[in-house]
Design a protein that fits this description.
The protein is of the alpha/beta class and 305 residues long. 38% of the residues lie in helices and 22% in strands. The chain is built from 10 helices and 13 strands. The strands form 4 sheets. Strands 3, 4, 5, 6, 11, 12 and 13 form a 7-stranded mixed beta sheet that branches. β1 (53-55) and β2 (60-62) form a beta hairpin. α1 packs across α3 (34-48) and α2 packs across α3 (34-48). The radius of gyration is 24 Å and the shape is elongated. It starts with 7 loop residues before the first helix and ends with a helix.
């Protein structure tokens, strides 16, 4: 009787190439050589009668057949992982790997404490953390989860909100001593504002305010477009760094500037206009069966938000 699944090693090599981005990186991850990985991919493509990877000089890109096969392969490996845990993990200890992509705001200011708690609770789970200000393709790039900012488009991805992150307006004491203290929204026109260019649109992000905070006042939301000779793109943390150096005024999240406010390195401005926020959510592909480790991480992230 012939073995039906004697090619699983080749499937694992294929998944490793996609997740690590190259034959060389996959070989390192699997403790073998690039030539062995290349032969494994060739055997798998011959078996399936279809090309799975587009080979270029820089990276391995998925064909449509490769994308479909990758999704099903990951689901199959996840089932095997769950089966092994059901037999071996009678004490309930989780193991496995979770690949997570996050923006710099969350990666530097929210995640460290949460991941420390997660690592203590689940020491057998390996976290591969990607910190970048771009929207990764979860399926094509092999990520289990990603954290995204803002209202998510109807992309077919499953989203679980982590928090509505409050916003505030700040500047350094040195800047305010030089330029004066703005007391109303109109005053900002006479100040140096440091806006951020959204990577997804290439446009300056509006600053968000809420008027009418007093008792009996009617509240209304204001989307205000800052103008300045200095623009920051790609990394939103740059606006905070520039404001801290006395260049101008920026809007940021409370969780990013709260320590600087406590230390007196920044000062909150126009507190009567605070009240707006932006949501952060964790997302994943609905057709992929989440591992127990991924589900545990989602729960931990939601608890900490």
């Amino acid at each position: 009787m012939s073995r039906r699944f004697d090619h699983l090693g080749d499937v694992e090599a294929f998944v490793a190439v996609v997740e690590h981005g190259s034959l060389t990186a996959a070989a390192v991850a699997l403790s073998t050589t690039p030539s062995v990985i290349s032969r494994a991919i060739g055997r798998l493509e011959t078996r399936l009668g279809s090309q799975l990877l587009r080979r270029t000089t820089r990276r391995q890109g998925l064909t449509e057949a490769g994308r479909v096969y990758l999704e099903h392969s990951r689901a199959a490996f996840a089932l095997i992982d769950d089966a092994e845990r059901a037999i071996q993990g009678q004490d309930g200890e989780l193991s496995g790997r979770v690949r997570l992509s996050v923006p710099t705001t969350y990666g530097h200011y929210r995640l460290p404490a949460l991941l420390q708690r997660f690592a203590v609770r689940y020491p057998q789970v390996q976290i591969e953390l990607n910190i970048a200000n771009r929207n990764v393709d979860l399926v094509a790039e092999g990520f289990d989860l990603a954290i995204r900012l803002g209202q998510l488009p109807d992309s077919g991805l499953v989203a679980r909100k982590l928090e509505d992150a409050a916003l505030c307006l700040v500047a350094s004491p040195a800047y305010l001593e030089r330029a004066g203290l703005p007391r109303a929204l109109e005053d900002l026109r006479r100040h140096v504002c440091i806006p951020f260019v959204m990577p997804s649109t290439g446009r300056v992000a509006n600053w968000l305010f809420r008027s009418g905070q007093g008792a009996g006042s009617e509240r209304s939301d204001i989307d205000w477009m800052p103008a300045s000779q200095m623009l920051v793109s790609d990394d939103v943390l740059g606006v905070v760094s520039l404001a801290e150096q006395g260049i101008g005024i920026c809007q940021s999240y409370d969780f990013i500037v709260e320590d600087r406010l406590r230390r007196g390195r920044l000062v909150e401005l126009l507190p009567q206009l605070r009240g707006r926020s932006r949501p952060f959510s964790v997302i994943y592909a609905p057709h992929r069966r989440l591992s127990a480790a991924s589900r545990a991480l989602i729960d931990m992230l939601a608890e900490g938000g």
